[in-house]
Amino acid sequence: MKRLFKRNRTTPKNIRPINAEVVPWLIAALMLVTVPHLPRLPFWTTFFVLAIVVYKLLTLKYPKLRPGRMVVIILTAIGIAAVMLQYTKLFGRDSGVNLLVLMLFLKLLETRSYRDGMVLIALTYFLVITNFLYSQSIPVAFFMLFVVGFITFCLISLNQGKAGISLAEKIRLTAPLLILALPVMALLFLLFPRIPGPLWGLPDDVYGAKTGLSEEMTPGQISQLAFSDDVAFRVKFNGTPPSPAQLYWRAIVFWDYDGRTWRPGNDARRSQPVVSTSGTPVEYTVTLEPHQRRWLFALDLPVLDSRAKPPSPGHYVLTPNMQLLSSKPIISLSQYRIRSYFNYRLGEKLTKRERTRALQLPPYRNPKAIELANEWRQTIRNPADIIDTALRLFNRDFTYTLRPPVLGADAVDEFIFNTRRGFCEHFAGSFVFLMRAAGIPARIVTGYQGGEVNPLGDYMLIRQADAHAWAEVWLDGRGWVRVDPTTAVSPARIQLGLDAAIPARENPRFLLRRDNTFFNHLDLLLDSINNRWNEWVLGYGPEMQNLFLSRFGVQNPRAYDLVLWLTVSLGVTLGLIALISLKRIPNKNRDKVQRYYLKLCKRLAHAGYERRPHEGPQAYLKRIKGTDPELGSRLDTVIELYAELRYGPERLPANVVRLKQLSDQVKLSVNPDQRKPRKAAM
Amino acid sequence: MPQKVQLFDQNLHGTLDTIVSQVSEIVLGKLDQIKLAIACLLAGGHLLIEDQPGVGKTTLAHALAKALGLEFRRIQFTSDLLPADILGVSVYQRETGSFNFHPGPIFSQVILADEVNRATPKTQSALLEAMEEGQVTIEGETRLLPEPFFVIATQNPAQQIGTFPLPESQLDRFLMKISLGYLDNTAERVLLAGNDRRELLNHLHPRVTPTELVQLQRAVNKIHVSEPLLDYLQKILAQSRMHNTIQTGLSPRAGLAIKKAAQSWAMLNGRSYVMPEDIQLVILPVASHRLHNKDHEPLSDAELEELLIGSVPVP
Predict the structure, then answer these.
(1) A225, A518, A603, B71: which one has the fewest Cβ atoms less than 10 Å from its Cβ?
(2) pLDDT score, position A311
């Protein structure tokens, strides 16, 4: 048992021990950098970390408790085993970070020498980076910047040597270091060769689920999204944004209905529909928040052409449903450019298979609705009029609400004939049901509707709460036509947005209601800052880099060129920094008296009497007297006065003025041009 | 004309001049060393003089004591000197039936510890303890030493046979270490042609009373040391700690010693404030016996000057 603890409790003589005062600071730095990780790691990691910190603090007070090599080795083995059990692997994002955190704290436990301290600090810097594997938002970036400053402070404390310096002085040393690092940071950011794709994404890690549209549509699902203020995506239009009624952001098309849930169905072996467009297209760039799915959002109706820019990484396709699909799930912030036409005709010819699918209904369900639809089919006949009738029905008796009642097995029947209160998915769902029952091919489209223009950033903001569902019906000779039954119930939803459409008491997002000006402005301001961050910092990929460099006349540089540029500019920057810090004579810090004296010394140096740096005023005067007694005697008063003002106990303002006068007088007679010949004559 | 800032009494300054001139009449051609020695005593520090035999160490010590009007005892250190020989002993009195303490030579105001490195460490430490504490403890009883209490120790260069070099911690108790060196030609001629120095010493009459001396010592503390000079001093200290030829840098005590010595030196030169030159002048006597190179050998004056003065810019 005794062997578990250090036999040799004192640090060996040839090893430089760590400055004991630094250890608490190191612990603080380590905690700061680890705290954001802890909620993401298994709970036992938190216990482990805290236990080690407590143990370490105890050993500071009672050095006898210091763990021996065996204890550290056993703890290391336990840590590795725990990570293996938890993740079944040691590499990968979560397991790697977890392992790093454990090992870092074990290193802290055995830190005794100066060298241990340096290793610990280097690893702590590294742990800062790992935080960005999880989030690259502004708060995280600023927090980590602060942490970097803190670690640097620890680094300085660790290296202060035998002579102790005060806390304030350490901070004074840290700040310039960080400021000097800024240009280097900017250069590395701007010039480091970029690879396409997210800077921080790790391929083998699947991000956790986030709220957003889903691959199925069940009543009640989209209304849940209405409670979410999360940003779905942001759009920047080339030119003025379209009117709200045109802002239908298409995402998923649903064909199959089983009586409760709508599903996209199988699109295999379908050919692309015939699309004809007219009018001027609208062009825009979408910055999409990661949603772990493959679909992208575009206004009805997107077209693919050479001017479109795919999201990074990879590319996308346009499905037969005119959905945009990325080749890979969107796991990081992505950007793409696309064009859409508002005047279009889509799929004027419907295949037999498509018609069957677009008319399919679950058997033995909703008999009353089917009966109603049959009645319409027989009495009205004209599909366009049937649509109108349905919309009129919705308009007359239905209420738009965020809190629809729960529906049973015959959901459509219950909705149409009993509850009559619903959200967009209820209206779209029952409308399509009615259309199909009436023999009109119809399908459901989900996506987002509307968007809020952020005046501060000149872009449009689409939140999860803007999620929407609408219908498309196929009419002979016109193809697929969008019909939004929600408009019939609540025109305000489309014209003014969700907040205007639902009663205030239902609105959970009270603070963000668009008529609540202060909070709304604040929210928009924060989002515009966030948008800039996304656009300029996180979105700084190869394209942005090329764009940036082209301003300096560098077109499409290769990685090799970039490295060259980077090296050269880093060299120049570091050289400049070195030059500035070496030459930095803090003139402003020196007081007046010394300034006058140094000025005089400079002139005397021109006259051939350079003051040596370690020479005091009297010694200097004595030396001048040795070669030029006449000049020396004229300097007597000035230098005596200087010494008294500089080193004496009192400084009379009158004497400071006098010093300036006297030293200026000396200047007249010690003009270097006059002096030299005189010296020669003597 | 600029107004002069006066801080201390002109009379005191006159007194100081007198003391310097009195001593320099006896110890010839050593004005700088004499001033340093007086500065050291004014700063309340003990003085170590290291040099060859016969260059006037004892005479200087004697003259100083005399000029300052202080009671003077000389202890010749030898290898068989015992602590009791310095501190004193209690002797049994048959008449009274009690022990009676006979104070040793340490109970006087100026001690000349001649050839201090000839005694054994035990005896050395008895003296050095008294220097540090200002009191001695004999047979369980603490006895105060007189005020002022100066030790002027002389030692022969360490290389000589039969010496016990003082350990670093004890060297640290001496504020300054100076050496005298041979006389220059003129001074030596005057010495050879003139009267016997011992004779002259007997004719020397102190011009300063013990009260005045204490006043002078107090005045040293009032000599102004400006902020830039404290910075300068700190830089010198840091330099001594950073430099890799030096084994152990100057201690904070050494820093205080330099400051005090510089103040004392400034006062001796009639100034009410310290100048960089004062620090530069006292730093070698104050620091040289406190610094060693990695091989535990003393550094030469030139080395020290380059290291401590030459590499730190004057503020």
Answers:
(1) A518
(2) 58
| Angstrom distance (rounded) from CA A659 to CA B80 | 63
Select the more confidently predicted residue: B159 or A247.
A247
Cβ distance A641 to B2 less than 8 Å, yes or no, reads yes
Note the pLDDT of residue A585.
Answer: 54
Reported pTM: 0.48
Single-letter amino acid code for the residue at A37 = H
DSSP code of B165? Answer: P
Beta strands in chain B (DSSP E): 46-50, 72-76, 88-93, 98-103, 110-114, 135-138, 141-144, 150-155, 174-178
Task: Please say if A468 is a catalytic residue.
Answer: yes
The DSSP secondary-structure symbol of A245 reads G
DSSP string, A170-210: HHHHHHHHHHHHHHHHHHHHHHSPPPSS-SS--TT-PPPP-
* Catalytic site residue from A466, A484, A523, A527: A484
- Residue A629 is which amino acid? P
From the CB of residue A343, how many other CB atoms can be counted at a distance below 10 Å? 11
Chain B contacts of A613, Cβ < 8 Å? 313-314
CB A27 within 8 Å of CB A56: yes
Nearest to A17 by CA among A162, A131, A148: A162
Closest CA to B153 of B179, B121, B122, B182: B179
In this prediction, residue A34 carries a pLDDT of 92
Q: DSSP readout, A67-123?
A: B-HHHHHHHHHHHHHHHHHHHS-S-SHHHHHHHHHHHHHHHHHH--BHHHHHHHHHH
Of the listed ranges A54-58, A351-355, A368-372, A668-672, the one predicted with least confidence:
A668-672
| Domain edges within chain B | 10-221, 223-315
Q: Do A644 and B2 touch (CB under 8 A)?
A: yes
B9 is written with which tokens? 């009494």
Q: Which residues of A touch B5 (CB under 8 A)?
A: 644, 648-650, 652
Write out pLDDT tens, residues A108-154.
Answer: 988 888 888 999 999 999 999 888 888 878 888 899 999 999 999 99
Superfamily of domain B223-315, CATH level 4 = Magnesium chelatase subunit I, C-Terminal domain (1.10.8.80)
Q: What mean pLDDT comes out for the span B150-159?
A: 79
Predicted confidence (pLDDT) at residue A33 exceeds the cutoff of 50: yes
* pLDDT above 50: residue A682: no
Contact A324, A296 (CB under 8 A): yes
Q: Please name the residue of chain A whose CA is at the shortest distance from the CA of residue B274.
A: A647
Does A388 qualify as catalytic in the annotation? no
Q: Which CATH superfamily is domain B10-221 in?
A: P-loop containing nucleotide triphosphate hydrolases (3.40.50.300)
Determine which helix (DSSP H) or strand (DSSP E) holds A451, and give its type and residue range.
Answer: none
3-state secondary structure (DSSP) of residue A338: strand
Above pLDDT 90, what percent of chain A? 11
| Structure letter (DSSP) for residue A404 | P
Q: What is the ipTM of this complex?
A: 0.79
Q: Report the alpha-carbon distance of residue A644 to residue A597 in Å, rounded.
A: 12
Do B241 and A163 count as a contact with CB atoms less than 8 A apart? Answer: yes
Q: Please tell me the distance in Å from A601's CA to the nearest CA on chain B.
A: 13
Q: Among A594, A595, A596, A614, which would you mutate to test the B interface (most chain B Cβ atoms within 10 Å of its Cβ)?
A: A614
The dihedrals phi and psi of A454, each to the nearest 5 degrees, come to: -90, 110
**pLDDT given at position A128:** 92
Interface of A with B (CB under 8 A): 161-163, 594, 613-619, 637, 641, 643-644, 646-650, 652, 654-655, 658
State yes or no: pLDDT of A304 exceeds 90: no
Decide: A105 and A30 in contact? Cβ < 8 Å.
yes
What value does the mean pLDDT of chain A take?
80
- Average model confidence (pLDDT) across chain B: 81
Residues in chain B closer than 8 A to A650 (CB atoms): 5
What token pair was written down for B285?
Answer: 């006597």
